[in-house]
Structure formats: structure tokens, C-alpha cells
Amino acid sequence: METIRALIVDDEALARTRIRRLLLLERDFEIAGECVTGAEALAWLNENSADIVFLDIQMPEMGGFELLERLAPERIPVVIFVTAYDEYALRAFEVHAFDYLLKPFDRQRFQKTIQRTRARLKEMRQGSIDQRLMSLLADFQSRRADKERIAIKNGGRVLFVRMDEIDWVEAADNYVCLHVGEETHLLRETMNALESRLDPTRFLRIHRSTIVNVDRIKELQPWFRGDYVVVLRSGVKLNMSRSYREKLKPLLG
What we know:
Layout: E1 4-9, H1 13-23, E2 29-35, H2 38-47, E3 52-56, H3 64-70, E4 78-83, H4 87-96, E5 99-102, H5 107-123, H6 131-148, E6 149-154, E7 157-162, E8 168-172, E9 175-180, E10 183-187, H7 191-197, E11 203-207, E12 210-213, E13 217-222, E14 228-232, E15 237-240, H8 249-252
Parallel strand pairs: 1-2, 1-3, 3-4, 4-5
Antiparallel strand pairs: 6-7, 8-9, 8-12, 9-10, 11-12, 13-14, 14-15
Helix pairs in contact: 2-3, 4-6
């Protein structure tokens, strides 16, 4: 019986313990290593080999996708994503990825994955790359590029605005106004849709109709009944309603 070397990568101790216990029940599997962070797993895979990796997608600093991007293609093993992603992401995984385990998973679902893994490893040629995984990475890179800039159509022209150039955003009926320096661009999109595309560590919703780039905030001035006036470095003053005050805690320490 040929041994299958497995690497477990997850920042949650309970998740690693669950996978480890289930793998110990499979006689042909060997736990080659365990990693808590993406950076640790990257170093491990650059020095060691594994046939399969159980890879968490959401980890601090370096998630599962970023880890795979930084690995040389020939060092990428068969990947089983371990995720708590929403249904939209899971549909993408079903199309491109070899398999995924949705937290929390039971033994029956785990064994189904193991059976598929055995069959996959058997049919793979030595040194070949899983094309579905490569397609997933390509999609991820494309989505990440979409998050870095916005295409604005104006007549026959298309203007590209980088996300980090945006100072603040305000709602305007079925449009949003992007304030970029002294320029204002009109984009046909809802506030909620645009907010989902913006980096939450960089952009803050301060009002039902206002989103601000936190790097542009100069000062916060108390206003009536728990509201604030947000003063930007440009001198622009924006109202922040108290219902969004909770989001200010990281800024206020």
C-alpha cells in the first residue's frame, strides 16, 4: 500500500485536531506536517513534499490563495480547501478546485474527500499540475485585480480609477459619486455593491450614503447625540451617524 503524505494548514487548533484525528483512521495516510500560518506552510512546502494539503482559505496575513500564488507550480500538491466561505465561493470551488470541506464537516463527508483523493492521485502523472487549481488561481487573481481599480464608462471613453485614489464616496439616487482629489466621477452602482468591492481595512461606511477612505481622515469632531463630523485632509466635512459609530472604535483605539 502506497503511503499518501498529507500536510494540514489551518490557524484554528480545533480544525487541525479534527482533520488529524480523521486522517489517523486512514491506514494509507501519513501526517507529514502541520502549519498554523500561511507563511509557515510556504516555508514548509518549499523544503518538503506532500501529496495532499488540507488548506484553510481564511488565515491572518497570508490566506490559502496567497500561499498557492507564492508557491512554484511544481511544488503545489493536491489541494483540499477547508473553508467557511459563502455559497457563491463554494460554487467557484466546485468548478475549479479538486475538493473542499465546509466547516464544520462530518466523518462521512471527510471520507468522501479521501476516496476522491486516492483516485485523483492514482490517475495523476508524476509532476503534473491540477489544471482546475490553476484555473481557480487565475480567477482569484482576476477578482483581486478588479478590487484594485474601478472602470468608469463615460460616453465612448472608459476611465480607470485606482481604489486607493478615492477620497470618499456618496450616494446619488441609482449612482454613486467617487470623489478623487478635485475630480468627481459618476458610477452607476449601489452603495452596498460598491462597499462589497472596497477593502474594509481601508474604506469605512460612516453614513447610509457615505463611505470614506480612512487614510484621508484628519480629524473627528463630536457632534450632537453621538454623531461625529469627519474632517478630511482636503478640508471636506462629512457627517457620521451614530449608528455607524461602532466602526470607529479601531480608529479611536
